[in-house]
Specification:
The protein has 1 helix and 11 strands. By secondary structure, it is α+β, with helices and mostly antiparallel strands. It is elongated. The chain starts with 17 loop residues before the first helix and ends with a strand.
């Protein structure tokens, strides 16, 4: 009877060597880093446009609630030409009066991130005013075609790849954000 202490030398071992695993890991890191850096700008645009749309929707709701609470008109006036090379856009909230004669709620306008623009058709003459009942009292924003015909502002990334529409219902003043034109 013969007893083997060592396995036969002709049998091959199973598994991968450290060198093979290292090569696969390096290739995976290269592929992931290439993907990250090529889509990083797109991710930043999505984030910045979303944040700007949410901030605008919150401020429109604030103006509406203030109009209801104080029983006076509040309006949001959209501004352009606020930055170098006319690339900065923003808005300011006013209390009472007519458009152009109210009292500003904050001393300086809220300015959008430099990577978010209001659609170029919008100028400093655009506004939305909420009446004492919270309805849209006066507005010269564009009007959507869907019922109840919301007024809307189009926010987009400079390259136009990311677009959000901040809408206010013409009947109730309800503010919403959509990714498609109303």
């Amino acid at each position: 009877m013969r007893v083997l202490i060592f396995p036969p030398l002709t049998k091959r071992k199973q598994g991968f060597t450290l060198v093979e695993i290292s090569i696969v890991a390096v290739i995976a890191v290269i592929i992931v880093s290439m993907t990250f850096f090529t889509t990083r700008t797109a991710w930043l645009y999505v984030s910045r446009v979303n944040v700007a749309a949410k901030r605008l929707a919150i401020d429109l709701n604030r103006a509406q609630q203030s109009a209801i609470g104080k029983r006076t008109n509040f309006y949001v006036q959209f501004l352009d030409n606020l930055g170098v090379g006319n690339t900065q856009y923003g808005y300011q909230i006013y209390e009472g009066g007519t458009v152009g004669s109210g009292t500003a709620i904050s001393p300086a306008p809220d300015i959008f991130d430099k990577n978010v623009v209001i659609n170029e058709d919008l100028t400093s003459n655009y506004y939305i005013m909420f009446g004492a009942l919270g309805q849209v009292f006066l507005c010269n924003l564009r009007v959507g075609s869907l019922a109840p015909n919301p007024y809307y502002v189009q926010l987009e990334s400079p390259d136009g790849s990311e677009v959000r529409y901040v809408c206010a219902s013409s009947a109730t003043g309800y503010v919403s954000i959509t990714q498609s034109a109303p």
